Amino acid sequence: MGILHTTSHILGFPRVGAKRELKFAQERYWRKELAEQDLLDIAKVLREKNWRNQAASNVDFVAVGDFTFYDHILDLQVATGAIPARFGFDSQNLTLDQYFQLARGNKAQFAIEMTKWFDTNYHYLVPEFHANTEFKPNPTHYVNQIREAKALGLTVKPVIVGPLTFLWLGKEKGAAFNRFDLLAKLVPVYQAILAAIAAEGVEWIQIDEPALALDLPAEWVAAYEGVYAQLSQVNAKILLATYFGSVAEHAALLKGLPVDGLHLDLVRAPEQLSAFEDYTKVLSAGVIEGRNIWRANLNQVLDVLEPLKAKLGERLWVAPSCSLLHTPYDLAVETQLQEKNPYLYRWLAFTLQKVGELNVVKQALNQGRDAVRAELDDSQAAADARASSKLIHKAEVAERLANLPANADQRKSPFAERIAQQNAWLNLPVLPTTTIGSFPQTLQIRHARAAFKKGELSLEDYEAAMRKEIEYVVRQQEELDLDVLVHGEAERNDMVEYFGELLDGFAFTKFGWVQSYGSRCVKPPVIFGDVTRPTPMTVRWSEYAQSLTNRVMKGMLTGPVTILQWSFVRNDIPRSTVCKQIAVALSDEVLDLEKAGIKVIQIDEPAIREGLPLKRADWDAYLQWAGEAFRLSSMGCQDDTQIHTHMCYSEFNDILPAIAALDADVITIETSRSDMDLLDAFVKFNYPNDIGPGVYDIHSPRVPTANEIEHLLRKALNVIPKERLWVNPDCGLKTRGWTETVEQLKVMVDVTKKLRAELA
Ligand code: GLN
Ligand code: ZN
User: Fold this and answer.
1) Spacing, Cα 730 to ligand 2 middle (Å)
2) Nearest CA to 14 among 47, 55, 61?
3) pLDDT tens digits, residue range 153-212?
């Protein structure tokens, strides 16, 4: 008998390019600095690079169809004819320009709404379904990419998101109906798309159904059988791909589906393997983490795969856990990191390194571990070094967490007592006004920062420039007659990066970009080691700001959950532990601020909702440790110190008990866009502490009218006792210009004064 071959494949690849080439080309195209054909050409070169990079790693199939000019779910809306009718476009003959209008809006129509792709930081464009939505197949996107890759001599496996996940991710618009009812119309359109793909001569088609990892209603789960019975009539084999969580609860269903293979995410949910070991078709084991930056321990991976291969033989496939879209492109370009943190560099793997790891796994399975001994030894050595590194496992951090005082996360007294003590010294009018922290990040500020980073501006001059900004911000607020002032955050590039740079245990990459949406990429900090705070981070800025005014200055920190959520987090200890480490480090800052006389301190947690696990059964555990971490970050502070928090742009209704359990003295929260609807939920829940619902949208330069703000404030006053109501914008003002900011805040303050007079 010959050697049993293990097939390797990729579920999807980053699209924007190693140097964000696609982003820059798109943006130039949007500015009309680049012709359409040039954009198309650049994209074609990128696709070829992506495919060649996959092929160079010896995969049996390169992924095609996943490349997109904006979003793969938008591509699917086009392919199924389900683009929003309100644009008046013909999905069969959509121009590139129109495609971008769908994504970015135009003069007449707002853009298709965006939301997070499962629990990643990628955002997809939410399909808009109406009761009368009609679908129409347009397989061009897939067919073209298949042809292009095949012309390069590559063996391809087209990738498309499946109909149930597509429907699930959409939203019902217009008259009430259930989008599930559209399934019967959608499936034949999928059949037509798949037939067109199969006609290109492909052996396998990967159909992604990550919705299976969510809590799907029974009706939706039950539909898989019938849908895939129809789809499997296509003249190609179907690999049904699941990822981001366990699908073990659907094992019986999945094993019975008439598809030819199944992909499982064995990084997120390794335990689900046991439910599928007796699967009788191709089992694709997702063993290389597709959404972080850490190198795998390849021996450990093989310890799982070798016995599996003994059972499955050639039916075992290996792959990354999910699309590599969520990892940066190439570690090799991070020469600075390599010099500065050589040990850390050895523990990392970006997309190109991950496909390399996949190749080692495949070779080990096909030829035995000895064939790749050097690579395996290297992987082992890196894993061992990381496990025992004193640079990242600091005894004093573990000890401090283990020995926190009893009830460390509880304030000394209940809210009622605290707020009385706070009000006594704060002496604020009713409906106190404040802002969320940042003031306009002017060109001037950004130029100063850039010059400082390039060494063209000395530290002294840079800091002097920032102090000047702070003084300006303070004077503006005094003139506006705001009650609780902020320093404006001029010195901060980004609310997470700023703290990451000052905390130990964080590192930064130069090109570690991942797509957030469209042409937008983010470069998250890397939390690689135990977190400590070597020196105070914000105290001298806040102190300086306070020294300029007799009014109260609010200190401004980013909360532990948000710092965690917007970083690449180490995977060798639980996220909850990392979060608590950050919290404890922040608590030192809170106490230092307090000592310096800053006794109103805001701890921002806009990302708390984003951390929610995909399955509801796991919510409580998360909310428990996230809440504890938030509370720990002000541990030990005095009762008369007022802790604020801020949240925005999330669905908060279903986590209100957890938000209340944060026990912040004041929460400021974005509400203006929903006409204060969110407030109803807070009221129904009987939210106990002070609350500042946002009274105007900060996304627009438009100055709200006094009537609009008055309407919102009256609405708030109807349901919240005036003693507990604050007045503030929805969120930070850093993206605004100064002129509109002053005008907007002026209206806010004027209306507040009018209502105050009425209430007096
Ligand atoms: N304090 C931050 C700011 O004002 C909060 C930003 C946010 O909520 N995302 O910019
Ligand atoms: Zn906000």
Assistant:
1) 7
2) 47
3) 999 999 999 999 999 999 999 999 999 999 999 999 999 999 999 999 999 999 999 999
